[in-house]
Every structure is written in C-alpha cells, then in structure tokens.
Specification:
By secondary structure, this protein is mainly α. The protein has 16 helices and two strands. The chain has two domains: 55 residues, no CATH class; 239 residues, MetI-like fold. Strands 1-2 form a two-stranded antiparallel sheet. The mean pLDDT is 88.
C-alpha cells in the first residue's frame, strides 16, 4: 500500500515538474493566452453559479442562496403553457432552415473562388463578399424595411415590373423565415468561406499538376482533391453549428418582428427577452434558457458522435 502511494506521489510530482518546466520554458506564450483564459473564467464559468435560480423562486432582496427552492416548477410552467409548442417550433424552424441553406453555400462558394484563374479577380471577389459581414444588425434591418417596402421598395418594384403582385414581406408571417434566412445568408456566407479557402490554399499544387497529367477534369479535381481537403473542416463547422438549433439571433428577430409576423417570429429568445427583462421573471426565463442550452449541448454531442462513426471526424 505504501509503495503504491509513493508511486502515485512520484507520478504527480513528475507531472507537476513537467508543467512548471513547460511554463518556465514558454512563459511568454502562457502570458499571451492569460487574458483569454481570465475572460472565459470570469464571463463564462463564474456565471454558471447563477444557473441555480432556474430551480428557485428568485427574489433580488433575498439573493440566490436565500431564495426558496422550487425544483422543476418553472420548467413545468413553461412546457404546460399554450405558447411552448409555438415557441419551440418557430425557433427550430428558423434555425434549421438557416443551417440547411446557410451551411453548404460557403463550401460551394469557396470551391468556386478557388477555381478563379485570376488571382487579382479572386481577391476582389473575396473582398466584395466579406463586406456584408461588417454591416451591423440594426443597419441590416433598416435596409430590409426599405428594400421590402410594399409601395416603394426595390424588391416589390421589380415584382410589379415582372407582372407580379407586391408582397407585404415584413407584415406577413409566411415571409418572416424567408427574409430572416435569406438576409443571414447574404450577410454571413462570404465571411464563412474564409476557413474553407484557407484549407484549399494549403493543398499541394503538385497534386493538381499530377491530376492534369492523368487527364482529370476540373470536376474530378474538385471531387478528389478539393473536397477531401475541406470535408474535415466542414464537419467540424457542422458540429458547432448544430448547437445553434435552439438558439437564434434575438437582436435580429426583435428588429424584424412586427405585429403581423408574430406567428412565426415569436421565438424562445423573444419570449425570454419579454418575460425576463420587461416583466422581471428571472427564475422562469433562466429555466427556459437552461432548457435551450441543454438541448444545444445534446445536439453537439449527438452530431459529433454520428460524425465520428460515419467519417471518423469529431471534435472530441
């Protein structure tokens, strides 16, 4: 028994010494990452202490520890409410559509950009498609209201010119998801190509030369050289994006929501904002937020497991 304890103590000491040696050898790098570590500890890990208010009847004057414990009361209240189904469906619908349409487009666009013969023209196109990412959500919402105006909007002017009937895009529930997803694609697709273009840039050019000598067409080069190079990165991005199916851009939803499109724009994020900030039901909204996070976590684990089994690509 004493020998086993001595071995464990020696192992721990050895690991501790290795850590200290690594810090002493590369102390500049550890100082460099220290601000990021402190940031995540302060703003992401310490706030986890407050999760417990989802299981309490939180009162500000009593504090977190002094508030009464109510267990799953707030979860039951949410799932038994008549709005729960609508909120969950609306949130899942807009995020799943955004994932289905928004995820493959950066991959396709990066493959096309990689095939442009002129390097100068390629850089010009990259700059053009990156710009929408830097448009703020508020400005984007204002642009949508102007462009989609039923009377003077350029989109409805074009529809009328082609013989169609102008649509009230911002005032009808049936158009909210289309407007939301389409604007997200316009704003983020170009920016999301950066990571794929970086992967394509790292491909050895000799592989293309060998493929050309063997008579491979452009499509065959894309399929057998380009695609295998970006699939691991694409799968990693898919795993990360799958964790957003119960989230959503609450700021954008708030700006685009009108009295006419609440049927599809009333998402969980909007409900939490309304009940939490405007009505002060902090425990209730904390329970809803915890439900969202648990579902998102399970989605990441599930997609990661499936990806690992099918392609041996996983994050962990």
């Amino acid at each position: 028994m004493s020998n086993g304890t001595a071995v464990q103590s020696s192992t721990k000491k050895t690991k501790g010494q290795k850590l200290l040696q690594a810090i002493g050898r590369d102390w500049q790098l550890y100082i460099f990452i220290l601000p990021a570590v402190v940031f995540y500890i302060v703003f992401h890990y310490l706030p986890l202490y407050g999760i417990q208010i989802a299981f309490k009847d939180y009162k500000a004057v009593q504090g977190i520890t002094g508030s009464a414990w109510v267990g799953l009361k707030h979860f039951k209240t949410f799932f038994s409410s008549y709005l729960a189904k609508q909120l969950i469906v609306n949130t899942l619908a807009v995020n799943i559509f955004n994932l289905l349409w928004g995820f493959p487009l950066p991959v396709i666009l990066s493959l096309l950009l990689n095939r442009l013969p002129s390097e100068r023209f390629k850089k010009f196109n990259q700059t053009v498609i990156y710009i929408p990412h830097f448009v703020s959500t508020v400005v984007l919402a204002g642009m949508l209201y102007i462009f989609l105006d039923p009377n003077n909007g350029i989109v409805n002017k074009l529809i009328a010119f082609l013989g169609g009937t102008p649509q009230y895009f911002m005032a009808e529930s049936k158009w909210f998801r289309t407007v939301f997803v389409a604007s997200s694609i316009w704003q983020n697709t170009g920016w999301n190509t950066i990571i794929y273009i970086a992967a394509l840039t790292g491909i050895d050019q000799e592989m293309y030369e060998a493929a050309k000598i063997d008579g491979a067409t452009i499509l065959q080069q894309i399929w057998y050289i380009d695609m295998p190079s970006i699939i691991p990165m694409a799968m990693m991005m898919l795993i990360l994006n799958s964790g957003q199916v119960m989230a959503g851009n609450m700021q954008k939803t708030l700006l685009l929501q009108t009295s006419g499109n609440k049927g599809t724009s009333n998402t969980i994020g909007m409900y939490v904002y309304s009940m939490g900030l405007t009505q002060g039901q902090f425990s209730y909204t904390a329970a809803i937020g915890l439900f969202q996070n648990v579902v998102s976590f399970l989605m990441v684990i599930t997609v990661n497991t499936i990806s690992n089994k099918l392609s041996s690509i996983s994050m962990f």
